[in-house]
Amino acid sequence: MEHLPVLVVIIPLLTVPLCVLLDHPRLAWLAALASSWLSFAAAVGLVLQVSDTGPISYLLGSWEAPWGIEYRIDVLASYVLLIVTAMAALVLFAARESVRKDIPEARISRFYAAFMLAFAGLAGIVATGDAFNVFVFLEISSLATYALISMGKDRRALSAAFNYLVMGTIGATFILIGIGFLYMMTGTLNMADLAARLPEVADTRTVRAGFAFLAVGIGLKLALFPLHLWLPNAYAYAPCSVTAFLAATATKVAVYLLLRFMLQIFGLDFSLVLMPLDTLLLVLGLIGILSASMVAVYQGNIKRMFAYSSVAQIGYMVLGVGLATTTGITSAILHLFNHALMKGALFLALGGIAYRIGSTTIQDFSGLGRTMPWTMAGIVLGGLSLIGIPSTVGFISKWYLVLATLEEGLWPVALLVLIGSILAVVYIWKLVEAAYFGTPEGNPEIKEAPLSMLVPMWALVGANIYFGIHTDLSVGLASRAAAVLTGGAG
Amino acid sequence: MELPGLYNYWVVVFLMMAGFYVVISQGNLVKKLVGLGLFQASVFILYITVGKVSGGAAPIAVEGITSYSNPLPHVLILTAIVVGVATTAVGLALVVRIYEAYGSVEEDEIHAQDLVEDDISEDPPFTESEVGKQ
Amino acid sequence: MSELQLLTWMPLVPLLATAGVIATDKSPNVREAVTIIAGVILFALVVTLAANIDWDNPTTLVLAEPLPGLRLAFTPEPLGLLFALVASFLWPITTIYSIGYMRSHKEENQTRFYAAFAVSIAAVMGIALSANMLTLFLFYEILTLSTYPLVAHAGNDKARRAGRVYLGILIGTSVGFLLLAMIWTWHVAGTLTFTQGGVFSDEVSPVVLSVLLALYVFGTGKAAVMPFHRWLPAAMVAPTPVSALLHAVAVVKAGVFTILKVSVYIFGIDTIADLAVSDWLVGIAALTIVLASAIALRKDNFKARLAYSTVSQLSYITMGAMLGIAAGAIGGGLHIAMHAFGKITLFFCAGAVFVTAHKSKISELNGIGRRMPWTMGAFAIGAVSMIGVPPFAGFISKWYLVGGALQTEQWIAVGAIVISTLLNAAYFMPIVYAAFFKEEDPQHSHGEHGEAPLPIVLALTVTALATGLIFFFPGVPLTLVDQMVGG
């Protein structure tokens, strides 16, 4: 049990060569699936262990921190790991059919290898307690992600992947520079050690420059408005199972990095008082919510529409962080979890539709309410959650976020947040109208998505409702994590 | 420290800006990758410079030497170089495939082809007038 | 059955009916029988609950507790029971009517129609029983969503456009204002539970309360206070049974019911009286009453005229709630019931004329009373009740409303009621007159026809009779609303 922190990362990482060596579509899938569920089990174990005994520190190769690399799992990390591993497990469960259709057979085993590599990288970013290790894992997951995106059927996937590669590399290099500046001033790379040593040297230009580089770098990975340009195309043209996985995890991990670096390493006082990060995040978050929602309304490709909606949802999380209060940060962390559930369900459903009709443009949705009733019902429920109808997770997120803004007396912000929800109604309803009241053109022989895709999707839809009513787990963990983040700095 | 003493840092800044500029201004995808490589290389130099202690020897414990360069940044940057190489490799692989798919590595030509495709495959964006007014 | 069981079954029965309707898709007779039986059972349940309830300690059924202290829960409450009684009584009657209407009109997708209808009724039960604002909001949104397929039922461009307006305004206002008001209330008061006398402490500044009250009133788009009333006329593209039960009774009453609940149990009548903003809101409600009546006067489309009449009548209730006096709230509460019977009768008649004579314009109705005596007779009764002439239901609630307005010396309110009464007469009476006393216009004749199909006549006769009976036996509603304002 004491090896859980590293197992979460190692299991998927070891599956990568396994998948390549097996070189058999079905076996590779089975290996990936099994290891993602094992990893998920490890994450569950970590959550339990952390709630039991507090933060876990794991020393790689038994080298003492801060010299050796330390894996450190606290409430926040265990929570994000839970999201990442759970989404990987569910998405892989659904992936088999759609991957068989999207990707040439000879490449399937390598697809799973890349998938597991991306997964291992994301898990590693969260698990590690070493700043430079973050960069390495970030690049591992990013490189794998570029490859995954480029496997989309449409050739535009290639240029989307290339653009993401350029912007992602710039972002990662900025993070590298930032970490370098911090190392210059403190001589350490261990996060806990950095947090302890930074206050002495906080008031230097080097640390501030490092902070700025890190903020921009993480902002790029986060797809924070206006650094979000890579995201819509990357999500729209990637294979559906990749989009589902990325939308549910990649940006979440970036938000995790934001919280980890800005709130814990630099500390609330430095990030939000000395540097005007809170105002910046607040404003950019708001603009992101409104502008991306507005753009989403006009998208004809539904995958792209949900991609823009993701940019808007990132705005909600960033806004929560920008409020810089315990409730605000709770809302951001909570939304990490809730948004993963919503978008996971929605993109999996889209995967089912793309599997059956080979397209995700709005015209092709006509009449799907009748031909694919379960998939569409899932989209409607996921959409309602996105809008924030009570008894869904979206409502709980919105509740905390609006409550946080009102606590700060920022009622115009609260109003704007809710206007964002109304825009979500507009773009979701475009879809519903087409699916239920549109007259189908062409092929009426469309069948419901295969069961192996419906089951994980409905598991997520069910989770959207279950965690909208029973919030003990999500709100409990989120508020504890937020308390640690804000309490540490007073 | 005097300006010449910061020579390495000036190189870093110059390389970084040059690389960044190439990435932004060049429409040719291969040139973009070159710029990206330059950009990353500048950071490698930054790290290496940080680790150098003037007058310090290589970090091998030898009788009589008391000042060593810091080996850690150098080792770190080995990793980063590997990452950089991998990035370039993936990037070039993508460029090859883009060339296969579009017959060009010029950004504007690719974009133009995509636009043509858009016109055929997608109708003008759905417009919404009534909803959202409130 | 214990109270707890009754509370569980009240929303569950219509939901089961939904499942039954979907399961019996293939055989329309069974499908409609399921709906009617569910309606009768539901009414029996509500009556049992109303008869046996112990007002001093009502039972609470907690469904879930999503956030600490914030529950989804049901508690029976007098006004809610009145609302539930009205809705559950009219549901089976409307179903009977629907059978006649939908079949003569050969509508498609009837299973979806009956299923969505049953879900709407379940949502109404949820609203009526809700123990706090969160529960109410949940079912309020479910009601919006479940009525959307009914509004867009026809599926053509016009219906879809109307559906967008419907959803845009109702969800827009509720998410934009009502939700904001709710969270703000939670932030200020720490509770959303409906409490006699209100939840706010004395320290809360009147400015905040004023903003909150305005947010609640405008956020409840279903109450159709201007300028958020356009969804109601838009919703008239729906089949007439929907307009009758949902857009004259269930949905719109859910809106004003929310406003009444908020003013009585979140703010408290006394707090409302102290707030300056309530005078403004009375003014806006009064404006809505008069303007909507004036618009109704100019509408030639039968259902549009009725819709604007509804907009106007709804604001009576909003105005009653904003008067800040017990009589106003009582009048508002009564009007929920009284207006329901009158207006549903009028819609039934409009639908009957439409399916039988294929006429939807008022100017074509000359002489129709001789062909359809029952229908137009019922229409006359409904119209007279709308105007507020004894011995019909509308008189009672108007009496209380005028009384409340006089007591608080809100002359605007008094004036609005008087003017609107005149306008009511001006837009309803010519229809009755033309139907019975003018000669039939040959150019508008669409062939021979007689009275509407039997189920339709049956339904509209029952509601017209109820309009009269309730004047003579107002005991049940009066006791209930008296109970609401604290006996």
TrEMBL record, chain A:
Record's bilayer topology term: Multi-pass membrane protein
TM segment ranges: 6-22, 29-51, 71-95, 107-126, 132-149, 161-186, 206-224, 236-259, 279-298, 376-397, 409-429, 449-469
Keywords, sorted A to Z: Cell membrane, Membrane, Transmembrane, Transmembrane helix
Positions in coiled-coil regions: none
Localization: Cell membrane; Membrane
Superkingdom, taxonomy of origin: Bacteria
GO CC aspect terms: plasma membrane
A Gene Ontology molecular function term of the record: NADH dehydrogenase (ubiquinone) activity
Example GO biological process: ATP synthesis coupled electron transport
Family, similarity comment: Belongs to the CPA3 antiporters (TC 2.A.63) subunit D family.
PANTHER family in the cross-refs: NA(+)_H(+) ANTIPORTER SUBUNIT D1, NADH DEHYDROGENASE
Name recorded for this polypeptide: Cation:proton antiporter
Organism: Solemya velesiana gill symbiont
From TrEMBL, chain B:
Membrane topology: Multi-pass membrane protein
Keywords, in A-Z order: Cell membrane, Membrane, Transmembrane, Transmembrane helix
Transmembrane segments: 6-24, 36-55, 75-96
InterPro entries in the cross-refs: CPA3_antiporter_subunitC, NUOK/Mnh_C1-like
One Gene Ontology cellular component: plasma membrane
Subcellular localization(s) per the UniProt record: Cell membrane
Principal location: membrane
Membership in a protein family: Belongs to the CPA3 antiporters (TC 2.A.63) subunit C family.
PANTHER family: ANTIPORTER SUBUNIT MNHC2-RELATED
Protein name: Na+/H+ antiporter subunit C
UniProtKB/TrEMBL annotation, chain C:
Location in or out of the cell: Cell membrane; Membrane
Spans through the membrane: 6-24, 33-53, 79-101, 113-131, 137-154, 166-187, 207-225, 245-268, 280-297, 306-330, 336-357, 378-400, 412-436, 456-476
Cellular component terms (Gene Ontology): plasma membrane
InterPro entries named in the record: CPA3_Na-H_Antiporter_D, ND/Mrp_TM
Superkingdom of origin organism: Bacteria
Keywords carried by this UniProt record: Cell membrane, Membrane, Transmembrane, Transmembrane helix
Location, primary (coarse class): membrane
Keyword Lipoprotein: no
Domain (NADH:quinone oxidoreductase/Mrp antiporter transmembrane) ranges: 130-423
Pfam families: Proton_antipo_M
UniProt topology in membrane: Multi-pass membrane protein
Protein family membership: Belongs to the CPA3 antiporters (TC 2.A.63) subunit D family.
This protein's name: Cation:proton antiporter
